[in-house]
Specification:
- The protein is mainly α and 556 residues long.
- It is built from 26 helices and 5 strands.
- Strands 2-3-1-4-5 form a 5-stranded parallel beta sheet, sandwiched between helices.
Length: 556
């Protein structure tokens, strides 16, 4: 083994190939597993050598090519050898990498830790069975293995981790026949499914298939001329305009009334297939056969990069939309945004949309007629409309976060407005104009309490005012000041009861309901509207109690 597999020329070629492959592979895996907090590689790989001596030779060859991967300290360095050692028999070369039991355990734990800089554990026999390290997504296997031992080794890379769905085995030793024999020992169901042992040929087929699907989704949109334009921003502008096309309700395939599943819009389909394209590109991008699959597409690499750029844009837009609505951002989207260091993401094109229109900060009070006109005349009208919508949603959540009546009113109005736009009842320019109106109304809503006679209503009293003024003829019969007085009494009377465990008890709710009913009757509140008002006041109280429990409602 040492003579055949450890020949100096072979080790030199193997190390060079491994470095090239790993540096490309770890970059392609960034969108799926992320990068370590310490700045190490996205995920990890395991190098399996035929003997312990060859482990050392491979390590030395890698160190010569990438000296920064080496460290004399066991708790540092991007690569480490893990093997058992006999101090009485081993050569000095082996002893230089020998570890005590405690230090070996530390190195093994480093291999499991996704945030540790160790990215290439090099082994001979150890860690091939029973070692579970989900961040490991690639195995470089340079020793002959058969049967169960081969399948056990292969299973080191098939653990799900973050967005990782596939592990890759790179075989430097002859493995194909042994792998097929090992698979034949499994059940018929396993052989049909072939979760283990898929050949990279299938990934190449899937890669080309996803490429064709994505070009089909963009059929009719001139994206190729856009990316071929001269200038440093050509790629950015092309991605921005493509994202606009994919999200625009006027684009065929985006109208929810014409879809069997309203969620499967053109943009959603593009993102799903672009994710799969990236997944198979990470698996098969280093294959020597990949070029043969795209013999008819000379610019295929640039196109794949462009699809990844557009996916990053789409993910960024979706993330901004969810943040505006106060919803969490999905983990896969966070990884995509954090790790795709492409020109589009680095320039922050979407977040700079307002800045390009002259609006440096997301401030609704600066939406002048001139800026609105710039947005309405944008080359990406749908994205220009999405930007003020996100501003409106953020402002709405800010000014109505403690007021369930206003929350409901604004949300329903915005939802109705956007549904009309998606059904193409409004153009992008008309939508922007209506959003600006809502934006100004939302900005003014926080100051509504100031219009009441001294003392003005604070935000808590204003919430209860809305709760009793939101029904039938109450406002026209009683007037704002009378309802404001009821709101002040409600806040004074129930403030001390704002505890979640109290309001959750039915007996306490019954007493509160009785107290509210007497207060409303004493102030001549319309009897036919009392039930709805009482229910809404109780809901408002519960909201305050829950907010105080979770976030801590501030004092006036």
């Amino acid at each position: 083994m040492n003579a055949m597999y450890g020949a100096p020329a072979r080790i030199r070629d193997l190390a060079a190939d491994l470095v090239d492959h790993w540096e490309a592979r770890r970059e392609r895996m960034k969108p799926f597993v992320g990068a370590s907090k310490s700045g190490g590689a996205p995920g990890k790989a395991m190098v399996v050598c035929a003997t312990r001596e060859i482990c050392v030779r491979v390590y030395d060859a890698l160190r010569e090519l990438r000296p920064e991967w080496h460290s004399d300290e066991f708790e540092k360095g991007a690569m480490k050898i893990v093997f058992s050692s006999n101090s009485r028999k081993d050569t000095d070369a082996l002893l230089a990498h020998a570890l005590t039991d405690s230090r070996r355990k530390t190195v093994i734990n480093r291999a499991k830790d996704p945030d540790d800089e160790l990215e290439l554990p090099i082994v001979n026999n150890m860690l091939l069975t029973g070692f579970d390290a989900p961040p490991i997504h690639t195995m470089y296997l340079d020793r002959p293995l058969k049967g169960a031992n081969l399948m056990q080794a292969l299973a080191r890379v098939n653990r799900r981790f973050r967005g990782k769905e596939d592990g890759l085995l790179v075989g430097y030793a002859p493995l194909t026949e042994n792998l097929q024999r090992a698979i034949a020992e499994y059940t018929e169901a396993d052989q049909r499914d072939r979760t283990l042992g898929q050949d990279v040929e299938r990934a190449l087929d899937e890669l080309r298939n996803e490429y064709d699907v994505l070009t089909g989704i963009l059929r009719g949109f001139a994206w190729e001329p856009l990316i071929d334009r001269p200038g440093p921003r050509a790629f950015v502008d092309a991605a921005l305009k493509t994202a606009n096309h994919l999200r625009d309700p006027r684009t065929l395939g985006n109208n929810p009334d014409q879809l069997d599943d309203p969620r499967q819009t053109l943009g959603r389909r593009f993102r799903d297939h672009a994710y799969r394209l990236g997944r198979f590109w990470a698996l098969a991008g280093s294959s020597k056969e990949v070029g043969s699959r795209f013999a008819d597409k000379p610019a295929w690499k640039r196109h794949i990069q462009f699809f990844a750029e557009v996916r990053a844009y789409m993910a960024k837009l979706d993330a901004m939309e969810r943040e505006a609505r106060g919803l969490p951002v999905a983990r896969d989207v966070e990884l995509c945004l954090a790790q795709l260091t492409s020109s589009v993401v680095e320039t922050g094109g979407v977040t700079e949309l307002f800045a390009e229109a002259g609006l440096e900060t997301a401030d609704l009070t600066h939406l002048t007629d001139a800026l609105v006109a710039q947005l309405q005349n944008s080359e990406t009208p749908h994205l220009a409309a999405e930007a003020p919508r996100r501003l409106v949603e953020r402002k709405m959540r800010e000014v109505t976060r403690h007021n369930i009546v206003r929350q409901t009113t604004f949300s329903e109005r915005l939802q109705d407005l956007m549904m009309r736009y998606m059904r193409q009842q409004y153009t992008s320019a008309e939508l922007i104009a209506k959003l600006v109106e809502m934006a100004k109304e939302a900005a003014a809503d926080a100051r509504r309490g100031e219009k009441f006679d001294p003392p003005p209503l604070n935000w808590r009293e204003l919430a209860f005012y809305d709760a009793v003024a939101d029904h039938g003829t109450a406002r026209s019969l009683m007037g704002d000041e009378a309802l404001a007085g009821i709101a002040r009494e409600l806040v004074t009377g129930v403030r001390r009861r704002l505890k979640p465990d109290w309001i959750a008890r039915e007996s306490v709710r019954a007493r509160l309901r009785s107290t509210i009913k007497r207060l409303l009757a004493r102030n001549n509140y319309p009897p036919d509207q009392q039930k709805e008002a009482i229910d809404l006041v109780l809901r408002q109280m519960e909201h305050f109690a829950n907010e105080r429990s979770v976030n801590g409602v501030p004092e006036d």
